[in-house]
Amino acid sequence: MPNKIEVEIEERKKTYPIYMDTDSIEDLKSRIINDFNLKKYLVVISEKVYKLYGKKLNFKSDEIFILKDGEIQKNFKNYQRIIQCCEKKGLNRKSALIAVGGGVVGDITGFAASTYMRGITFIQVPTTLLACVDSSVGGKVAIDTDFGKNLVGAFYQPSAVYINLNFLNTLDEIQFKSGLAEVVKYAFIEKSCEARFDFGLFDFLSVHCAKILDRDLRFLEKVIKVCIELKIAVVTKDEKESGLRKILNFGHTYGHALEKLTNYKMFTHGEAVAYGLHFIFNYAHKTKLIDANYKELATVLLHKFGFYDKTFKFSTQKLIQTMLKDKKAEDNIIKVIVPIMKGYVKESDLDIDVALLNNV
After folding, report:
1. Which is catalytic among the residues 74, 269, 278, 285?
2. CB-based contact 63:42 (threshold 8 Å)
3. Opening angle at CA 145, ends 171 and 87, nearest 5
4. DSSP three-state, residue 158
5. Catalytic-role residue among 252, 260, 278, 285
6. Closest to 43 in 3D by CA, of 64, 16, 67, 62
7. What are phi and psi of 58, to 5 degrees?
8. pLDDT by residue (tens digit) across 233-275?
């Protein structure tokens, strides 16, 4: 029996399930079709996932749109191609778009679902750790533009999320570590998520680091469930990022700028976020928002999972200029989420002079 977590968006009285299991991947297609009584649908699937699992998933060739891998694929052209496939297949308001892949696939498929016929059923099948713990939950869907990441998008909740842990067995090490960066991020923001329970994620990750890095599914299942619970706690209170949800951007403003500066080719999203976490902890220490003890604890946890700080060839000033183009920047003020004590964060205006002076 799969684990089932219900997500309830208070503002719109919308509820949807997240299923998590290790059942046979061969059963996924029939399960989704039966759950939603689907007659017509289009599956947008990652090229890598299709090569690994195409036969097991057993979708017909005219039911799928294969999306090449990489953040650069999350663009207007591919969005248009997906919409054209929907039109050719005659999808209607009772049809569905099914995303099978990582965050890129989920983001662009969700955006297409949110706009086609003003919104059709959107189903998520995340196949990466990053998508399982973060991007498949919460309803942020988007595409990138030449000016930045996720600048065109919507808030559009999935109708269901199907997490099959077996996909993680073939996840390459780079993508696995990318997901771990988001996991570690949740440890730093847990107390501010206002969840019903204290999961003690920071300490759990510290103690069980080796098991998690070895991909022990018992520990990965626990970690994924906790991260989902934390994200749900935030999203159910603030679906459209008017307040509390902003804390989920911890490490992301710098990370997004890093991705943009390197044209999404040098780092995975998680790697960029990990550098963003180092940046913001260094900054918080310099500005006396946190003491040396907490900075050391945070740095040790990042190092345990293989995330080390780095000095880049391009200047901090260049990164700052890119951060000023972030969609969360306001009137030449960079809004960042900063740590204030173990597990707690808050929104703050970045002191650009301090960041530049200390080259943090």
Report:
1. 269
2. yes
3. 80
4. coil
5. 252
6. 64
7. 60, 35
8. 999 888 888 899 999 999 999 999 999 899 888 999 999 999 9
CA 80 to chain centre: 23
Report whether 167 contacts 53 (CB < 8 A).
yes
Q: For residue range 170-223, list pLDDT tens digits in order.
A: 999 999 999 999 999 999 999 999 998 999 999 999 999 999 999 999 999 999
Q: How far apart are CA 356 and CA 319, in angstroms?
A: 10
Locus of tokens 């996924």:
28
What 3-state DSSP class applies to 31? helix
The mean per-residue pLDDT over the stretch 270-281 comes to: 96
328 is catalytic: no
In the predicted model, is pLDDT for residue 330 greater than 90? no
Per-residue pLDDT band at 146 (split at 50, 70, 90): confident
Tokens of 336: 């960042």
Q: Which of 47, 63, 194, 241 is catalytic?
A: 241
Quote the tokens at residue 83. Answer: 């919409």
Phi, psi of 119 (to 5 degrees): 125, 115
Beta-bridge partners for 64 = 43
**Can you give the three-state secondary structure of 240-272, one letter per residue?**
CCCCHHHHHHCCHHHHHHHHHHCCCCCCCHHHH
Looking only at the bridges linking them, the beta strands covering 148-155 and 140-145 are antiparallel
Q: How far apart are CA 102 and CA 208, in angstroms?
A: 25
Taking alpha carbons only, the member of 230, 235, 231, 275 closest to residue 253 is 275
pLDDT at 11 over 90: no
- Average pLDDT estimate for 63-70: 96
Which pLDDT does position 317 carry in this prediction? 85
Enter the tokens of residue 89.
Answer: 């297949």
Query: What is the pLDDT averaged over residues 288-293?
Result: 97
- Residue 12 annotated in active site: no
| Catalytic residue (one of 249, 259, 260, 285) | 249
Q: Which amino acid is at 129?
A: L
Using a pLDDT cut of 90, give the percent of the chain over it.
78
Question: 182 catalytic, yes or no?
Answer: yes
Residue 318, classed as helix, strand or coil, is helix
Instruction: Return the structure tokens found at 112.
Output: 């297409």
Q: Is 249 a catalytic residue?
A: yes
